[in-house]
Amino acid sequence: MLRSRTKLIELGKRQLCRSMCKSSELTLVEVDDKTGIATLTMNKPPVNSCNLEFLRALKSAMKEIESNKCSGIILTSSNDKVFSSGLDLNELRQPNPERLATFWKELQEMWVTLYLSNVPTAAAINGHALAVGCVMAAACEYRVMLPDFTIGIHATKFGYVVPPFIVNTYLSVLPHPVVERALLQGKIFSTQEALQINLIDEVVNSKDEALCKCADFIGSFEQTNPVARALTKRQLRAPFAKQLLEDPETELRESLEYINTPLFQESLDQYLLQLKKKNKK
Ligand SMILES: CCCCCC/C=C\CC(=O)SCCNC(=O)CCNC(=O)[C@H](O)C(C)(C)COP(=O)(O)OP(=O)(O)OC[C@H]1O[C@@H](n2cnc3c(N)ncnc32)[C@H](O)[C@@H]1OP(=O)(O)O
């Protein structure tokens, strides 16, 4: 009787996995039948830059994973050179006001969903993780990275003022003086440098190894009560998310005002030109 019930549960889980895999072209979710760990693969070619649709897909995949009572989330990329190149800069350039507001709200909501996720979160960083790409990795509880890539928030280098929730993501991983220097310099770290400052937890040589390390990390909570774990995590992280949870409108208004300034738009134009030029060389 017990065995057949277990079989039914297993079957149910498999069906759940299949239905979740269909959730979006931009994200792929695979659930391990044995561990219940969901691997959420970012799949927006060419470089997982976050536009409105991608942010929406990420948020809804994370919510779906949580509501299906998976045991944890591993965030990774289908591109073997780029984890994520951060925000899609085209969303910020001469923006349509309504789309920009929706885009920024989605960014806020995706961040809150990941940062305060009820389940353990781990990033298998199998490529460059820049700006919001780094923020997504840092919002996870554990990070493992492959060698010879880069990670960091270089916003100040190209004229962006870093919003408080992004500062707070760094502050929940790194000590204040390290955050201050990194953000003010717009520092991009190599894998090895990131390990030295504890921005990442481990370096591994392959994506498979990264996924295994993340699964081990999530497995380390097997003996804890999931509700107690989730509430304790929320308690620890709430001070960093407080501003965005209590008053997202102010952050939204300030960001939109700043994005629309000629100063910001001019530096964005220059930066995008540089990006394109690099590819023509
Ligand atoms: C209040 C507002 C301020 C908010 C401040 C918050 C802080 C950060 C927000 C962000 O996340 S801004 C995003 C910053 N990201 C970057 O600067 C990354 C730039 N990209 C790169 O350095 C490289 O593309 C890469 C990620 C290292 C990958 O290099 P690779 O050689 O593999 O690929 P490329 O040929 O360079 O790129 C392919 C293609 O994609 C375009 N592209 C790359 N990144 C972006 C992006 N973030 N947004 C839009 N488009 C991007 C790149 O130009 C290429 O296009 P084509 O030339 O092929 O048309």
From TrEMBL:
Pathway: Lipid metabolism; fatty acid beta-oxidation. GO terms for biological process: fatty acid beta-oxidation. Its main location: mitochondrion. It is found in: Mitochondrion matrix. The keyword rRNA-binding does not apply. PANTHER family: ENOYL-COA DELTA ISOMERASE 1, MITOCHONDRIAL (PTHR11941:SF45), ENOYL-COA HYDRATASE-RELATED (PTHR11941). This is Enoyl-CoA delta isomerase 1, mitochondrial. It comes from Drosophila rubida.
